[in-house]
Predict the 3D structure of the following.
Amino acid sequence: MTLLESLVSSGLPTACGNAEVLLTLNVPEPELKAQVKQRDWPFRLVVTENAAPLGFGANHNQAFAKARGDVFAVVNPDIAFLPLDANTGPEALVMPPGVGVWVPRQVDRTGKVQDHCRALITPWGLLARVAMRLGGAKSLPGVAPTAEAADWVNGALMWFPRQVYQALGGFDERYFMYCEDADLCLRLQLAGWRMQTAPFNVVHDAQRNSLRPGKHLRWHMTSLLKFWCSATFWRYWFRSLAGK
């Protein structure tokens, strides 16, 4: 509910016009379903209840199949939208030609910019980060200052033109969780599209579950191995050696 309420108060649905929200309940949540159904929202709301839990990419591909708009946004439930700047009108919310994904700046609740724009993660780069972390380093490599300078952006909030998401086939569902966002960003750029920072901010308090022992760490390591063994990773890496 917090996500939907913040979306309304941000002014984005009004500024965009004809907005729709495709809400997926990956596990049964009858109380939440009842709450959202009881409200009148300033957008078309479609609620999908999964018979069995799906992965991150599969859930968003399923939602895309039901979407009607020209723009498709991937949104994590732990996002909170911030009010648009008074000078941000509808014309500023139109993605320029050539942009394949729009990425709003992510901040924490204190306003600090999160590390949502990343450099390409490699096996040797990951080993270097682990060594630096164990050595007590306070600043680690692998973070890009903007979406334009990044190799990939996290999937907490990504806006795609419909034709781009459709042409790319959406997320690769072989990734249950983690790395599907990196894979899609690389495929997008290999296809000639670029990433760009969007003119609004969102709050995202990253939980870093992928670093904690348990199923999230297993999913993360399994996805990294798939990513590093993929043709997409190696095509992009060799292209980066020659310069983008």
